[in-house]
Amino acid sequence: MALTPSAVEELLVEQKDRVAIITLNRPERLNAISGSMLNELAAKMVEANKDPDIRCIILTGAGRGFCSGLDLVDVNNGGIGSGNRGSNRPRQLFDLRDAPITVMWSLDTPVICALNGAAAGYGMDITLLCDIRIAAKSAKMAAVTAKRNVVPESGGTWLLPKLIGWAKAAELYYRARTVDAEECLELGLVNTIVPDDELMETALQWAEEIADNAPLAVQTTKRMMRMGMEESYDTTVDHLMVHLSGLFQSDDFQEGVKAFLERRKPEFTGH
Fold it and tell me: 215-262 is classed in which CATH architecture?
């Protein structure tokens, strides 16, 4: 299968062998998220996740920024997140069932964020929803929602404390801090930092390494890690054994054992 082209110019979709590359494409607005981008990003994430030939997804931004958050111009014009002044009822309500923040959380296919510049607000939350974050030296994360009288609306208040702890998350949010790539690495917000011109090369290399492994095992591991964030240890182990029994019956398990005995690289099919 091959990924279908994006329906909007503000989002680019490319497939390189077993890797899908999704690019936020509004560089003149630092890739601020519009309504059409929200819908298409969710749709393309779902499409890539369902494609058996796609074993890893890379999410990045065009130009010098990753994503500056929700488009505040769109907000002022009655778009994303807009509301009637003096009223507690918003004009436009999100359907969170199909929103990128919900879709990305439920993906089984691994997602790598190639953080090419600043990520603020909604953009920062999207990075946190990725499994792995590779940062360019020029990258930064801006937890600045308190400067706009909003909250991290896309799961950040749930994700960030789990990633870096309550106290550090509180510091970033309450002080509305912007942290550069080096501090992001120190805090554990990114996995590694690379020169700007090596970002996509590194992201593709990591994605290809993931794609070389057994997709059923990788996706099941991700699912178990996600479930384990809300389950007890005993429950997680019980679920693990259920999944493991199915993996033992797979063709890829037989291929993995055979390749090990023959001292060669395995060729996994996802079956």
Answer: Orthogonal Bundle (1.10)
The answer to whether residues 14 and 21 touch, using CB atoms and an 8 Å cutoff, is yes
How many CB atoms neighbour CB 197 within 10 A?
A: 9
Each of the 271 residues of the chain gets a pLDDT tens digit; together they read 789 999 999 999 999 999 999 999 999 999 999 988 999 999 999 999 999 999 999 999 999 999 999 887 765 554 555 555 555 555 555 567 778 888 999 999 999 999 999 999 999 999 999 999 999 999 999 999 999 888 887 889 999 999 999 999 999 999 999 999 999 999 999 999 999 999 999 999 999 999 999 999 999 999 999 998 888 999 988 988 988 899 999 999 999 999 999 999 999 999 9
DSSP per position, 48-65: HHH-TT--EEEEEESTTE
- Distance between CA 11 and CA 77 in Å, rounded? 21
**CATH 3.90.226.10 for the 11-212 domain, yes or no:** yes
Structural domain spans, the chain: 11-212, 215-262
Question: What is the DSSP annotation of 64-82?
Answer: TEEE--B-HHHHHTT-TT-
Residues constituting the chain: 271
Tell me the two tokens of residue 93: 């309500």
The sheet with strand 118-120 has its strands ordered as: 65-67, 118-120, 140-142, 178-180
Please name the residues in contact with 18: beta carbons below 8 A apart, sequence gap of 6 or more. Answer: 53, 54, 55, 56, 208, 211
Report d(CA 169, CA 161) in Å as an integer.
Answer: 5
Residue with tokens 């384990």: 228
pTM here?
Answer: 0.91
